[in-house]
UniProtKB/TrEMBL annotation:
Database matches in PROSITE patterns: HTH_MERR_1, HTH_MERR_2
Protein source organism: Nonomuraea recticatena
Lineage: Bacteria, Bacillati, Actinomycetota, Actinomycetes, Streptosporangiales
Entry annotated with the keyword Zinc: no
Domain HTH merR-type per the UniProt entry, residue ranges: 1-68
Keywords: DNA-binding, Repressor, Transcription, Transcription regulation
Protein name: MerR family transcriptional regulator
InterPro entries noted in UniProt: DNA-bd_dom_put_sf, MerR-type_HTH_dom, MerR_fam
SUPFAM superfamilies, A to Z: Putative DNA-binding domain (SSF46955)
Entry superkingdom: Bacteria
Length: 119
């Protein structure tokens, strides 16, 4: 299928599909005219990429995980579970940092609002 067809089928912009290809996440074959053509597996590949991006994984990590899928779904081989657990722990850490920043900002807003009301 051509890139426009893949875009329509997946709901992913052509620009993003090109980006995925540039990042080594998606492969195509070029016609003599230079047009990209994708195999039938491209639909599942794009779905996997989108799922991993939604999970907060960067494209560098996704590229490493792509060969590790089991079957047609989003299940990965056991050999990458430690890697996923590390990513999960990093997300927890970032969430904790953001929660602290949110709390601090809330205190600043609250104090500023009180000061303005008292003025």
């Amino acid at each position: 299928m051509k890139i426009g067809e893949l875009s329509r089928e997946t709901g992913v912009a052509v620009r993003l599909l090109r980006y995925y290809e540039d990042q080594g996440l998606l492969t195509s074959h070029r016609s003599e005219g230079g047009h990209r053509h994708y195999g039938p597996e491209a639909l599942a590949t794009v779905e996997r990429i989108r799922t991993l991006l939604a999970a907060g994984l960067p494209t560098k990590i996704i590229r490493e995980l792509m060969p590790c899928f089991v079957g047609d779904g989003t299940q990965l081989q056991a050999c990458v579970l430690d890697h996923l657990k590390t990513q999960y722990a990093e997300l927890d850490s970032r969430i904790a940092d953001l929660t602290q920043a949110r709390t601090a900002l809330g205190h600043i807003l609250e104090a500023s609002t009180r000061a303005l009301a008292d003025a």
